Amino acid sequence: MLFRSWDAFVAAAASTGQATLVVTEQQETAKAVEWARARALPVEDVRITFRPDGRIEAAATMTGLGAPLHGRLRATLDTNGGHARALVESLRVGGLPETLATSLANSAVQSAQLDQVPLDGLSSVTVADGTLTLVGGR
C-alpha cells in the first residue's frame, strides 16, 4: 500500500505542483520488513519509530550470526536542495562502541547512496510523534 501511495505522491507533485504524503510508523515498518525480506537480510523484530523530537529510529534484531544481535539506529532527515538526506546520528549494535558503529553506519549509508532520496521539488519533511509528513511541489 505504501509503495502505491509513494508513487501517487511523486506523480501528483510532478503534475499538479503540490502533494502531501503522511506515513505512519506501521506503514514504514511494513515497508522496512518487505525491503529486508526482498534482500534476504537476517533480521527480525523490525520497528520504525517517528519520535516527537523529529528523529527517526529503527530497531531490529539480526539473526544468523550465532547469538541474536540487537541494534538501534537514530537518524534525522534534511530536505535542502530538493532531496531527502538521511544523517545517522547514532547506531548501537551489541557491544560495539557507539562512535565506531555510527561512523561505520554513515559510511555504509553514503556508499549505498541511501543518504539521498531524489525527489525534485521536495519542500519539507516533518517527523512528528508517530508520523512522517512529506510535502512536495514545484
SSE layout and pairing:
Layout: H1 2-15, E1 18-24, H2 25-38, E2 43-50, E3 56-62, E4 69-78, E5 83-93, H3 98-111, E6 116-118, E7 122-128, E8 131-137
Antiparallel strand pairs: 1-8, 2-3, 3-4, 4-5, 5-6, 7-8
Number of helices: 3
Outline the biggest β-sheet.
Answer: 5 strands, antiparallel
Q: How would you classify the helix and strand content by structural class?
A: alpha+beta
Q: What is the CA-CA span between the terminal residues?
A: 25 Å
In total, the number of strands is 8
Helix amount:
25-40%
Strand percentage lies at 35-45%
Task: Explain the overall architecture.
There is one protein chain. The protein is of the alpha+beta class. 30% of the residues lie in helices and 43% in strands. The strands form 2 sheets. A 5-stranded antiparallel β-sheet has the order 2-3-4-5-6.
Describe what is shown at a glance:
By secondary structure, this protein is α+β, with helices and mostly antiparallel strands. Helices cover 30% and strands 43% of the residues.
Keywords:
3 helices; 8 strands; 138 residues; 30% helix; five-stranded antiparallel β-sheet; three-stranded antiparallel β-sheet; alpha+beta
